[in-house]
Structures are given as C-alpha cells and as structure tokens.
Amino acid sequence: xSSIRVPRKRPDSYQHGDLRPALIQAGLKLLxxxxxxxxxxxxxxxxxxxxxxxxxxxxRDKDALVEAIAEEGFRLLTRRMRxxxxxxxxxxxLVRLRASAWGYVSFAIENPGYFRTIFGGVPCEDxxxxxxxxxxxxxxxxxxxxxxxVAEGLQRGRLRHGDPEQMSLAAWSMVHGLSMLLIEGQxxxxxxxxAAARAxxxxxxxxxxQGLRA
Amino acid sequence: xSSIRVPRKRPDSYQHGDLRPALIQAGLKLLxxxxxxxxxxxxxxxxxxxxxxxxxxxxRDKDALVEAIAEEGFRLLTRRMRxxxxxxxxxxxLVRLRASAWGYVSFAIENPGYFRTIFGGVPCEDxxxxxxxxxxxxxxxxxxxxxxxVAEGLQRGRLRHGDPEQMSLAAWSMVHGLSMLLIEGQxxxxxxxxAAARAxxxxxxxxxxQGLRA
DNA sequence: CCTACCGATCGGTAGG
DNA sequence: CCTACCGATCGGTAGG
Lengths: 214, 214
Hints:
The structure is a homodimer of 214-residue chains.
Chain A: H1 19-38, H2 41-48, H3 62-87, H4 93-110, H5 112-118, H6 133-155, H7 164-183, H8 194-212
Chain A binds a DNA duplex (16 and 16 nucleotides) through residues 15, 19, 40-43, 50-54, 56-57, 61-62.
C-alpha cells in the first residue's frame, strides 16, 4: 500500500476561492447517483478534494448545500426553456409553448439530479417548506417563462379567454407530471430516452393545447 | 428517572404476527415526518416497540420495507380513485374522469408520505429502477383506473378518437404533476388545503377535458 | 483550509 | 423475538 493521503496536487485546483462551486458539482453528482441518501457534506468534501470540515466555511449545513444546488438547478431549467423557445423562432405561440414544454421535460431527463433536488429535495418535512427567498425567486422565474407565454397568447388572442394563472398551472402540471413519471421510470426505461420522450411530450402537450387555444 | 425499558405491555399488541403491518405503519410515519432521511429500520422498530433486530425477520433490508410501503400506498391510491368514481355515480364519463382526478390529487395531499414513497421513494438511483413485480403490478392497477375510463370514453364516443395510451398518459401527467406541485409546496401552503386544492384540480383538469372530449 | 475528536445513528450479524 | 456487538458514516465543533 502506498501512502494513505491522496493529495500531492488536489483533483483540479480548488483551495483558492472556487471551492463553493466545486462542492455544488460534487453534491450534484452524489445526489444524482445515490439520491438524497447518497449526499453528505463529508462525501462532497472528499469528491472536491478537501477535508470534511472545509465545506462548513461555505455552507452552514447540509441543507444549505442542497438549497444551493436547487437554486442552480432552477436557473439552468429556466435557461433551457428559454433556449428551446428561442430555437423555435418567433413563430406561432402554440409552437413556442410546445418548445418550452420540451425544454422543461428534456431538462428533467438530462438532469434528474437537479430536477429532484429542485422539487422536494430537502424540505420534504411535513409542514410548510422553508424555502429561502433566493430559492423561491429562482422558482418563480422558471414558472414565469410559462406564465409569460400564456400571457402573450391571451394578449394576441391566440388562447381562449380564461384565468392566465389557471392556464399556466395546467401547463406546468402537465409537463411536470410527465417529467416526474419519466425520470422515475414509471413509463419504462425506454420512454425516457431522447426521441421517445420527445414524442411523448409532443403528444401529451397537444391534448392540453386543444383546451387552451382560441 | 424511571426504568429505561418502556415495555410492560407493548404499544399495541404486536409481538405475535402483526409486526409486519406495524412496521409499515411506523415506516410510513417516519417517512412522512422526516422524508427518506428520517426512515431507518431501527427507528421503525423502536416505533413499533420491538428491538432493532426484529424487523429483519420481516424485511430483508431497508429497501424491502420501503417497497412494502409503496405497494400498500399504490393499493390505497387505487381504492381512493375508485371510491371517488363510484361516488360520482354512473353519470357522464367526463364527470367520472374528473372524479378520478380528484381521487388522485386528494390522496396525494392527504398521504404525502405514501405518495412520495410510491413515486421514487427508493429506486432513485441513476440507472433503471429495480421495482419488484408486485410493486409494478400495484402501479399498473392504479394506472388502469384512468386507462379504463379513457377506454370507456372512447367506446361510448364520449372522447375524440385518439391513442388511448397517449390520452391516459396526458391525464396521468396532469394529475400527477399537480399533486407533486401541491405536496411539495410549490403552489404555496394554502393551495394544498382541501377546498382550494379541489378548485385547482377542477380548473386544471377542465383544460385537458377540452382536448379529450369528442 | 486542516487534523483530531465528539456523540449519535446506522445497517447488519452472531448467537441464543 | 432479544441482547450485544461490529465497522462505517454522519453532522458538527475545537483549536489552530
């Protein structure tokens, strides 16, 4: 057996000031591979190549790390939706709505660790979820993408009259439910792969479109 | 301090042959209160009033207990949906579809512990979910309720022509997504309470109905 | 940012 | 079904 201490020249180049993002990445990896049970500050520290006491300089406790991961995840989800919408061009609003739906679902499939953490990773306690203001805002921004599309559709008369909040919630529920069923394997492992998932998303969202369109 | 040992006449009356269901109840309580992190075979044993080695006579390991809880949850979910459908009478199919949706959502709200366990409690690992045949069947039965209503609607010409599988999935996605958003507090704590949730469910499901009805 | 240490809890097994 | 025990891991702190 060689020496027990691994170091020599830490995994990448933390140590300086970039330990925080490194811990987030490590935590995400642990979360993805082993679920909430697989995540611990100690393991994250080890993955990042620092002592198990180091993380406490960046995160008050384990929940704080999970929250940081969730916040990052929300931002990435928002970005993905916007990218898909942009890629769909400035054409028909229903097409853009469909694009945003695919952005949502594809993000979930490709980033199940982030996705699960965002939606109920930590505050699964019984009572009210004690989400931080920053996390709440990140979530509101993601929801705002859908909300914005609906508002635009109503304004342009592309969607039938109705409560925009209810319409947005209907869309959100649908893509969220589909995402969860896909990543949890409820629809079979094959369904979660790219092309199949895309087809399922399109087919599913079209039923909702019929209910929303003018 | 009185004696350390609590017993005298165990909590209820396990010991004989009803330890298994008692452990399931205990596990559910732990799961509900503290999430996956809060569940341990030892804690469940303590809640049930037995030694921490006793559970191993009924469950191979921790995952086996979680799976048993999920199976029980699926059965209760199925029952709840059927009850709501029955309560809605033999009237219009869309009314019954709506009733089943409320059965689904209300079960989730009232039994978040069961609901979370059913959908991704354990097998959150990265790869394929290793769900037991019994668990898969329990899940298929719950899905079958929705599936049956859709089939009936198509047969009676109450729903527009379409792939029954896709239509069922659309309905499932919607109620599932709404349930998850509600119990994880994404819609605010107030929304998850009875009347408010019912209104949200009805409003949401109606948009889908427009897309499904003939 | 590290080493060293604390108490607590865990899954699991031995052995009866 | 119990007591007693194992090694491992955890969150967190002291103290530097």
